[in-house]
Amino acid sequence: MKRMTILCCLAAAAVACGAVGFFHRIESVAAEAISPLTPVLLIDAGHGGFDGGAQGADGTVEKTVNLEISQRINRIASLCGFQTVMVRDSDRSVEEEGITGLRNRKVSDLHQRLKLTEQYPQAIFLSIHQNHFPDETQWGTQVFYGPNHPQSRILAQQIQKNVIECLQPENRRAIKEAQDNLFLLTQTTVPAVMVECGFLSNQEECKQLCQPDYQQQLSFLIVRSVLEFHKQDAEGMEQSDGAQDEKTVRLLQLRI
Predict the structure, then answer these.
(1) What span, in angstroms and rounded, lies between the C-alpha atoms of 100 and 199?
(2) pTM for this structure?
(3) Residue 2 confidence (pLDDT) above 50
(4) 71, 75, 98, 116: which has the fewest C-beta neighbours closer than 10 Å?
């Protein structure tokens, strides 16, 4: 817990300083690792390969931004003690071999990603995407959460809160429960969120999302949020275990 608190503070300081170089201070703290954090962090860089996702007016392709931010999250989370699994670590799709037809390939790709979540029943599923809307004035990070696990909403709220407080103070967006159009969030049973980091359709925000400094700050905040979420969850389990121990003691006393 002490290590987690230090890392959270470092992440917050890094965002406040706006310094990519500050990241190396987290590396020095992480070198004193006590033990890996228990949940697997399953990082899903949305789209990839044949599926580029949304596209900005300047030609920025969503799949590229998704992967860049996901790789940053992966590095920071690994240093913080999480076991991480990247759904994709390069510009590729993950559909089954031999599938033909654009629609069939997209469906297969989604189902393969879902299968991966089923391999890690104790995982936290974190999907990274970029938004796009005809109204080019729309901007800001927004987090969606899966309806099948009660902790999904808590994690989404933590990410949204930290991003607004530290990076986007004028952002008025709120978290949203995923609907049927978000297949992975509505099908997986683990805590699951999708971070729509910003709007590629907004030229100013699109430029930000492509900047390494901004990607690093956003990645820090996402990992910080996961750390805080895990800390709260672990403390809740400890309190629950403590209450159960007290109940056991009382039962033993009654029997004596």
Answers:
(1) 31
(2) 0.83
(3) no
(4) 98
Question: Is the Cβ–Cβ distance between 156 and 222 less than 8 Å?
Answer: no
Write down the residue that tokens 């033909």 correspond to.
100
How many contiguous H segments (helices) and E segments (strands) does the chain have? 8, 6
In terms of C-beta density within 10 A (0-12 exposed, 13-18 middle, 19 or more buried), how is residue 114 classed?
Answer: middle
What is residue 39's predicted lDDT score, i.e. its pLDDT? 85
The end-to-end CA distance of the chain, in Å, is: 37
| H-run or E-run covering 192 | strand 192-199
Distance between CA atoms of residues 221 and 226, nearest Å: 9
Give DSSP secondary structure letters for 11-48. Answer: HHHHHHHT-GGGHHHHHHHHTT--S-EEEEEEEEE-SB
- Please identify, in words, the CATH class of the domain defined by 2-231: alpha beta
* Mean pLDDT confidence for 158-163: 98
User: Worst-scoring range by mean pLDDT, 11-25, 52-66, 128-142?
Assistant: 11-25
Strands 82-86, 142-145: pairing kind: unpaired
DSSP state of 108: H
Q: How far apart are CA 136 and CA 151, in angstroms?
A: 33
